[in-house]
Design goal:
Layout (H helix, E strand, L loop, with lengths): L9 H6 L7 E4 L3 E5 L7 E7 L6 H7 L2 H17 L2 H4 L1 E4 L3 H4 L8 E5 L9
Antiparallel strand pairs: 1-2, 2-3, 3-5, 4-5
This protein binds guanosine-5'-monophosphate.
Protein name: Histidine triad nucleotide-binding protein
GO molecular function: catalytic activity
Length: 120
Amino acid sequence: GKPPYDDANIFARILRGEIPCKTVAEDAHALAFHDIAPQAPLHVLVIPKGRWVSAADFHAEAPAEAIAGFWRLVTMVARDLGLEESGYRILSNMGADAGQEVPHFHVHIFGGRRLGRMVP
Ligand code: 5GP
């Protein structure tokens, strides 16, 4: 079965306010903040406010309103950062083969430069 959610993970600690972050946007369902080690001029992480490790968990267990709110914040952030015209990339790592470091579901938003083709 899937591993249990680890309440000590770094994003859980950020959500509890135990660790600071540079907030970009927040609502009842999700939090967006700058990645601590940006891989592009704009590199923002968006996390749902719930205990989900993967996209599958989030989809299966989160209320529809939370899922809608999460994607609303992702697209709002991209728009508010001025990325709609230039373009941007959304990416999410799931599990070992993708190198997921933080076991709390999140998407990366990358933008602000030509990103090149994403290939494995
Ligand atoms: P993953 O590989 O799990 O998709 O990516 C985790 C991301 O979280 C990495 O890009 C990493 O730089 C970022 N990160 C890890 N710890 C922290 C932290 O304490 N604060 C912030 N803002 N980002 C973090």
